């Protein structure tokens, strides 16, 4: 992969790049509606493909917040049309790395020394690039390390990037800005946290120490003395990312073992610790010798007891059988608002009931087969139905809690990973504790 010699770091340059992409999307929409008026054909998929390619090209060159947003959105099959989701999935593994001189510049700024002065060996070519930083392999005292180096200027440019990205996102999703301001703020705060590698080190040490004894789960060690706010050093783990592992066509019993480890890891964090790893994409999990290694704790989410009980109350299968109880739960979670009309309340109960009948399904059995293609297909179809639903496009007001953004993202990511594995998982869950 060709190295990128520089990242546009000036505010004006980054705004121009993002604004140019927005203009291109606008032109594509005009062409689309012009063709539809002449031919009567919608051509919606072609529109999504051209816009998704334009957006991803700009995001991958700017890196940082824009690219991280693409990576986040690729996880949630229920948010974007498939063309965007497929294109943005490249942010998980196919990002042009930065050239070595920029890496050296970062080391000099952070430590006052070059990489080869801190490590016995340091590979100049990045092992892989991601949205906020890239990873190099290094050795020190005979030990193999993974050294994550943050892209220059990412933290500084993130707020202004997101301000320009917001109109693009609103256009892609068909959202109203006032209704989603708090959700954007939640995303912005989490992205800012991810640019602080000192915080990531603390998150990793806390979650690792609080997760002892999980079957078939392992964590790398982290090295505070070789880390800073923009450089993070940990053990190098020779393993296969989950997507590459699946390509080796492991036996079903292996898939189930890895899938169970992944499921148990998340259930322990969410339902016991109330703090969880909120970035579940394939590159953050490695399989080695039949066990699952968990990487990258830059994005973690804490939830309080009140929110937890309201959010996970929706897993109770009794709600699907009792519309009055579902309506009450939706009121308590501010999904149904006091200003809604009776017709709006009925429609919201119908839409949410249909959504829960799909998304809560894994929790409604002692064991769930994520290899069932119909399940993930039903999630895609649900996303399409909700995006095309005129009621959801037109209804106003902030619905639910911003805390749901990362809870939902995490479970969509978990479902997607387990689906790739085709794993059968024991999912028994104490539903009654949320009543």
Radius of gyration: 22 Å
Please describe the biggest sheet, giving its number of strands, its sense, and whether it closes into a barrel. Answer: 5 strands, antiparallel
Number of helices: 18
Mean pLDDT rating: 81
Strand content: 5-15%
Summary keywords:
five-stranded antiparallel β-sheet; four-stranded mixed β-sheet; 13 strands; 435 residues; 11% strand; alpha+beta
Question: What would your notes on this structure say?
Answer:
- With 435 residues, the chain is of the alpha+beta class.
- Among the domains are: 99 residues, no CATH class; 197 residues, no CATH class.
- It has 18 helices and 13 strands.
- The strands form 4 sheets. Strands 1, 2, 3, 4 and 6 form a 5-stranded antiparallel beta sheet that branches. Strands 5-10-9-7 form a 4-stranded mixed beta sheet. Strands 8-11 form a two-stranded antiparallel ribbon.
- The chain is globular and about 70 Å long.
- It starts with 10 loop residues before the first helix and ends in a 9-residue tail after the last strand.
- About 9% of the residues have low confidence.
């Amino acid at each position: 992969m060709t190295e990128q010699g520089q990242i546009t770091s000036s505010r004006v340059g980054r705004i121009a790049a993002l604004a140019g992409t927005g203009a291109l999307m606008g032109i594509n929409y005009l062409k689309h509606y012009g063709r539809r008026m002449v031919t009567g054909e919608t051509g919606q998929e072609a529109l999504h493909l051209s816009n998704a390619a334009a957006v991803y090209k700009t995001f991958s060159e700017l890196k940082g917040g824009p690219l991280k947003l693409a990576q986040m959105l690729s996880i949630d099959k229920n948010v974007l049309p498939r063309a965007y989701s497929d294109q943005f999935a490249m942010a998980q593994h196919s990002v042009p790395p930065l050239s070595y001189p920029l890496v050296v510049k970062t080391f000099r700024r952070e430590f006052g020394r070059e990489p080869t002065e801190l490590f016995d060996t340091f590979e100049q070519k990045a092992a892989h690039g991601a949205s906020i930083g890239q990873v190099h392999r290094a050795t020190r005292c005979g030990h193999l390390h993974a050294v994550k180096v943050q892209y220059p200027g990412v933290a500084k440019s993130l707020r202004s990037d997101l301000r320009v990205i917001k109109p693009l996102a609103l256009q892609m999703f068909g959202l109203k800005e006032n209704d989603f301001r708090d959700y954007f703020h939640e995303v912005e705060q989490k992205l800012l946290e991810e640019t602080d590698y000192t915080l990531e080190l603390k998150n990793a040490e806390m979650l690792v120490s609080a997760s002892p004894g999980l079957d078939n789960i392992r964590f790398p060690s982290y090295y505070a003395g070789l880390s800073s706010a923009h450089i993070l050093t940990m053990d190098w783990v020779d393993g296969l990312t989950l997507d590459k592992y699946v390509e080796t066509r492991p036996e079903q019993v292996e898939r189930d073992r890895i899938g169970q480890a992944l499921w148990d890891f998340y259930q322990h964090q969410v339902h016991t610790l109330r703090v969880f790893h909120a970035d579940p994409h394939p590159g953050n999990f490695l399989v080695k010798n039949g066990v699952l290694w968990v990487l990258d704790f830059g994005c973690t989410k804490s939830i309080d007891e009140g929110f937890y009980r309201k959010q996970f109350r929706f897993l109770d299968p009794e709600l699907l059988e009792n519309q009055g109880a579902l309506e009450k739960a939706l009121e308590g979670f501010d999904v149904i608002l006091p200003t809604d009309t009776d017709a709006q309340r009925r429609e919201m109960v119908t839409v949410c009931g249909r959504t829960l009948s799909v998304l809560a399904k894994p929790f409604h059995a002692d064991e769930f087969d994520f290899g069932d293609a119909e399940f993930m297909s039903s999630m895609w179809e649900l996303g399409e139905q909700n995006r095309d639903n005129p009621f959801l496009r037109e209804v106003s007001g902030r619905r639910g809690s911003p805390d749901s953004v990362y809870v939902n993202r995490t479970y969509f990511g978990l479902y997607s990973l387990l689906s790739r594995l085709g794993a059968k998982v024991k999912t028994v869950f104490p539903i009654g504790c949320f009543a």
